[in-house]
Amino acid sequence: MLYIQRIYDHEQDYQAYRVLVDRMWPRGISKINAKLDSWNKEIAPSPELRKWFGHDPEKFAKFRELYLKELAENPAMPEFIATIKQKLNENDVTLLYGAKDTQYNQAVILKEFLNKELHQTN
Hints:
Layout: E1 2-6, E2 17-20, H1 31-34, E3 38-39, H2 47-53, H3 60-73, H4 77-90, E4 93-97, H5 106-120
Parallel strand pairs: 1-4, 2-3, 2-4
Helix pairs in contact: 3-5
């Protein structure tokens, strides 16, 4: 299964393949305690898009549209998708993010994008 989870949550699945999908390292989290398998900064929204969105729920629909476009055009995506597909064959995968809002963040959109891509390639 593919999951998303806030990196600050106390309940963490350390058995899953853990991928940080933020461009910036989350404050207050040590790299040792994060227990990441991968940090894919290049998958995160561009700095310009992230700053424009500013985690404003009213901008989420437009942010989603623009971020999906960035993902579709991102040259790192084919390799990222292949890695996620391979890891899902072995175990669960958790996309980790630092945003406070669990409903309006890029990981929600990335999971949607990946689910669509993974189902197309099956």
